[in-house]
Design goal:
Elements (H helix, E strand, L loop, with lengths): L10 E6 L2 E6 L4 E5 L1 H9 L5 H8 L5 H16 L10 H4 L8 E5 L17 H13 L4 E6 L3 E4 L2 E5 L9 H7 L2 E5 L19 E4 L9 H12 L5 E4 L2 H7 L9 E3 L14 H12 L3 H4 L2 E5 L8 H10 L4 E5 L15 E3 L8 H6 L3 E3 L11 H8 L4 E4 L4 H5 L4 E3 L1 E8 L2 E5 L1 H13 L1 H15 L4 H21 L5 E9 L11 E2 L5 E12 L11 E4 L1 H9 L5 H11 L3 H17 L2
Parallel strand pairs: 4-5, 4-8, 5-7, 8-9, 9-10, 10-11, 12-13, 12-15, 13-14, 15-16, 16-17
Antiparallel strand pairs: 1-2, 2-3, 6-7, 18-19, 20-22, 21-22, 22-23
Helix pairs in contact: 5-17, 11-15, 13-16, 18-20, 19-20
Length: 581
């Protein structure tokens, strides 16, 4: 049942030609209502749902009233008629006076982050752990459909992302920042960068490429639209290094490593772990044979096909797969030494990892900026073998072996690399045949994993928001005035410009003139009232009146062939604007 009482938008209720309407003045919309809905709205702010039913039942049936409630629920999801976020101060008054972050990730059930067994994707698991540890430093408020407490220091607020622009000033008064997740197909975030009143926006990026170029193009769009005090985070330096080939200002990409739950993922007695897993699976070979492990969705982009090839190349080893299912491979005739170990709840995963002698990570998609399962295996003391691509080697460091992989400059059908089965096979056998090496790497793996903590991740997020607030204080609203003019070559001038021959034989050149004043007609420059400069400088000056520095970068890239000259132009003009603020 739709819960009343509800705070209404500013509404004007009226009837015309025997049809009832509500004009939502805050949304500039008119909603057609049934008679029962019309009467419910008159009671909406003062009566409970049960009281409304009792009041209206003499005139309407229970089914008519309940149907009206359902229609109101649909209208509320569209942001119509009912208060969504307007009373932020009142909504969050139950929380402490600590800093508050607004978390906006549309399309994902908020409750799922607090029930980790419902999560399968590594990104969502990482977010769940991150949220848990962030509450040590800030209160978290999730954009949602109602006002309620989800957990200690965690709330859901009745607000839609479509309301952010309208509520920008109130959001800025309430929240230290906005935390969200980059998804290729979503464009809802782009218009929000237009609102300078909104607090800094930090966009987590876990899929820097892939999907036929959609990921790269989407991130570049966000990069161009971001305000000077917004930014990305990604789990490894690889993302910043990758995008430094595409953008001029890679400082927008901040490294935010994942962590590991070291109280859950820790070394256990290996022989005992092997015996228990063998009992679960019903295969005694787990106890007696050297065991290679794979824990992931069993899909091509996760390296499942390569893993099958490894099993075929090494009949003397046992290859275990732990995942939700075998997927399409279930209908294949699999190698005898390939064993499906089943799907296990998260609290049982440490035992599964500990039953592996070597952990094999073969993912080849553009979404592997980190490799959370690699870190979990390392925390359990299992040395990993991983491909030499993207951000995974930075997690392993010297605590495992890096195998060859053919990396593609352009992804193809989400695949960005192909791990070498032969080199993987060689590295796996090298580890399994050298007990001393395996024990040394096991110790290094545990020590290295211990340096990745979720508390560090949480503190780093707070630090990034503090840095973004510092950048925000430096943003200049200054807008110098300028114009573009032609000038005859007979006029002595040392500025270069494009020429155009007049009928009289004179060549016209072009330049820009910047006036010594801004749009408020305040004098910003001393001495001369106007200064000549390159056309490119004037172009950038004009662009920056209404667009971001990154958008100016895009224009200069297109019109100036010399990249060094283009970068110098942008740096020079941006510096002038800042210096005359």
């Amino acid at each position: 049942m739709f819960d009343f009482p509800r705070t209404l938008h500013q509404l004007y209720l009226f009837e015309k030609n025997a049809v009832f309407y509500a004009a939502d003045l805050e949304k500039a919309s008119i909603v057609e209502l049934s008679a029962v809905m019309f009467n419910i709205l008159k009671l909406a702010e003062a009566r409970t749902s049960e009281e409304i039913v009792q009041t209206l039942q003499p005139s309407y049936s229970a089914d008519e009233i309940l149907e009206a409630f359902e229609e109101f629920a649909a209208l509320e999801k569209e942001g119509l008629l009912f208060n969504r976020g307007e009373d932020l101060k009142e909504i969050v008054s139950v929380a402490s006076d600590r800093r508050k972050l607004l978390v906006a990730i549309p399309g994902i059930d908020v409750d799922s982050y607090f029930d980790i067994e419902r999560l399968y994707a590594g990104t969502n698991m990482a977010l769940s752990y991150m949220f848990e540890h962030l509450t040590e430093y800030v209160d978290l408020h999730f954009v949602g459909n109602r006002n309620r407490k989800l957990a200690d220091k965690v709330y859901e607020v009745d607000m839609s992302v479509s309301d952010f622009g309208r509520l920008s000033r109130r959001i800025n008064e309430t929240y230290f920042g906005i935390l969200t997740l980059h998804l290729d197909q979503e464009t809802w975030l782009l218009p929000l960068y237009e609102h300078v009143e909104l607090p800094p926006i930090l966009v987590q990026c876990h899929a820097p490429r892939g999907h036929g170029g959609e990921a790269i193009n989407s991130i570049l769009r966000h990069y161009a639209a971001m305000r000077d005090f917004d930014g990305f985070t990604a789990p490894s330096d690889y993302v910043r290094d990758f995008y430094s080939d595409y953008v001029w200002d890679a400082s927008f990409f901040n490294t935010l490593p994942n962590g590991v739950d070291s109280t859950l993922f820790r070394p256990m007695d290996k022989e005992r772990s092997k015996r228990e897993l063998a009992k679960w699976v019903g295969d005694e070979r787990i106890i007696t044979m050297p065991t290679v492990g794979y824990l992931s969705r069993v899909e091509s982009e996760k390296g499942a096909s390569v893993y099958l090839k490894l099993a075929e190349l090494n009949p003397h080893l046992l290859f275990l797969i732990a995942g939700p299912s075998l997927g399409r491979y279930a209908s294949r005739e699999l190698p005898d030494n390939l064993v499906y170990a089943g799907f296990h709840p998260r609290e049982k995963l440490p035992l599964v990892y500990n039953a592996f002698d070597v952990y094999c990570f073969l993912s080849m998609s553009g979404e592997e900026t980190f490799g959370l399962t690699v870190l979990e295996a390392m925390a359990c003391g299992v040395p990993p073998v991983v491909p030499n691509f993207d951000g995974v080697p930075s997690v392993v460091g010297d605590a495992g072996l890096i195998a060859d992989a053919e990396n593609f400059e352009e992804d193809i059908a989400t695949v960005v690399s192909y791990p070498s089965p032969l080199d993987f096979s060689e590295k796996i056998n090298l580890l399994l045949n050298d007990d001393a090496m395996r024990q040394e790497l096991s110790q290094k793996a545990r020590e290295r994993a211990g340096s990745f903590t979720w508390d560090k991740t949480a503190r780093q997020i707070v630090k990034y928001f503090e840095r973004l607030h510092e950048k925000r204080r430096l943003v200049s609203p200054n807008r110098l005035l300028n114009m573009f003019v032609p000038t005859s070559s007979k006029v002595s001038h040392d500025l270069k410009g494009e020429g155009l021959t007049h009928q009289g034989g004179d060549r016209l050149k072009y330049k820009s003139i910047v006036f010594g004043m801004n749009q408020h007609y305040e004098r910003c420059l001393i001495r001369d009232a106007a200064y000549s400069m390159h056309v490119e400088d004037g172009l950038v000056l004009s662009i920056l009146r209404n667009h971001t520095v990154r958008e100016a970068e895009a224009v200069l890239t297109a019109v100036v062939e010399d990249e060094a000259r283009a970068k110098a132009t942008l740096k020079r003009v941006h510096g002038l604007i800042q210096a005359t603020a």
